[in-house]
């Protein structure tokens, strides 16, 4: 199979690329605009494979998308390219509308034009897999209710509203034009190569630097954490075995309050890096409660029973094993995050394609 992965230089997309190259004989076309969130170093050694090609293309550029489809003739699309950070969407929603809504529309139209040229057998095998978030469902206020595939959409932030819009378009292109689509909605991911603006890497790197650990509001909001490599394996399971037209929720059954996540990171750092920055007694002393995020969702929790029972996927990591691996990864991969924090990764883009 040749898989066109959009957003393959991002956090989850790069895990998908690594999983395809290391875990299968499939080929990858990594299509990414390399925004601030894109970093080709995240693909790692997979970039050296004969089965890997990189295309620096913006999904808002329809002509370039048509050229990529014609040149590479993919068997499937896994669409992960997006603006993904809620706080950025509050400060500047325009680019979220462009990439998540207009860009997804362009990609759907380019995929549809390509699909129409395929033979009947190729059409049957073609897939357009749209990767989305549980944030489209809004938030939960109880303690024992879950998002299922039939929970009504009620997005709270500009980010989740634009993702919801893209989900609706993908399903409409499936129903109206017969494009064989798959949609997955996943909970919060964490793990290696996570951009340092997101909660977990932000806390690890600030603590190592002796900086404040900013917890929004009371820190009691709940997220359902999934190790990124478990998500990548789930996505490939859905791509290969999912029923066209279906939606699958993906989650790790790891509900944690934000403050408990930050405290866990502090405890792991006490154990792994007891030698603290000057003037710091305990890492947890750096915890600082700050102004809450506007519209902050209270709780996310996924019911992943459909993908488990129908497709046999199970996460391999618990939160305890995954968060330890993640902290250890940041401790042994300072070259990656120092490049990101210094902005150097943005200068290393020339001549990056194969
Ligand atoms: P990310 O921000 O780390 O990566 C996004 C990638 O898309 C980057 O490489 C960026 O360069 C690229 N990109 C952005 N705009 C583009 C454009 N216009 N054209 C081409 N490429 C562009 O995001 P992520 O955390 O890896 O998320 C990937 C997908 O998974 C997103 O669609 C997101 O909504 C979804 N998702 C994320 C999470 C999570 O916890 N991070 C959870 C569920 C779903
Ligand atoms: P984030 O990683 O931005 O993911 P999302 O908003 O998509 O869930 O944030 C996870 C949670 O952590 C969210 O409830 C907001 C909170 N948070 C903080 O308390 N402090 C921070 O510095 C950040 C980045 C997030």
Describe the structure.
This protein has helices spanning 11-23, 62-72, 86-91, 94-116, 120-125, 158-177, 199-208, 228-241, 258-272, 305-311, 319-332, 334-342, and strands at 2-6, 27-32, 52-56, 76-79, 127-133, 181-186, 189-190, 213-216, 222-224, 226-227, 247-250, 255-257, 287-290. It is an alpha/beta fold and 354 residues long. The protein has a domain at 2-194 and 224-255 and 298-318: 3-Layer(aba) Sandwich (Rossmann fold), CATH 3.40.50. The strands form four sheets. It has a seven-stranded parallel beta sheet with strand order 3-2-1-4-5-6-11, sandwiched between helices. Helix 1 packs across helix 8, helix 7 (199-208) packs parallel to helix 9 and helix 9 crosses helix 11 (319-332). The chain is globular and about 65 Å long. The model is unreliable at 350-354 (pLDDT under 50). Bound molecules: nicotinamide-adenine-dinucleotide (NAD) and thymidine-5'-diphosphate (TYD). Nicotinamide-adenine-dinucleotide binds next to helix 1, helix 4 and strand 5.
Q: Going across the major beta sheet, what is the strand order?
A: 3-2-1-4-5-6-11
Judged by helices, strands and strand pairing, the structural class is alpha/beta
Termini, distance in Å?
Answer: 19 Å
* Number of discrete helical segments: 12
CATH superfamily of one domain: NAD(P)-binding Rossmann-like Domain
Oligomer: single chain
Q: How would a textbook summarize the main sheet?
A: 7 strands, parallel
Regions with little confidence, pLDDT below 50 for 5+ residues: 350-354
CATH class category name of one domain: Alpha Beta
Rg computed from alpha carbons, rounded to a whole number of angstroms: 20 Å
Succession of helices and strands: EHEEHEHHHEHEEHEEEHEEHEHHH
Q: Sum up the overall morphology in one term.
A: globular
* SS strand fraction: 15-25%
Any idea what the CATH architecture of one domain is?
A: 3-Layer(aba) Sandwich
User: How much helix, percentage-wise, in residues?
Assistant: 40-55%
**Could you say which small molecules are bound to this protein?**
nicotinamide-adenine-dinucleotide, thymidine-5'-diphosphate
Enter the CATH topology name of one domain: Rossmann fold
The whole-number mean of residue pLDDT values reads 97
Total E-strand runs: 13
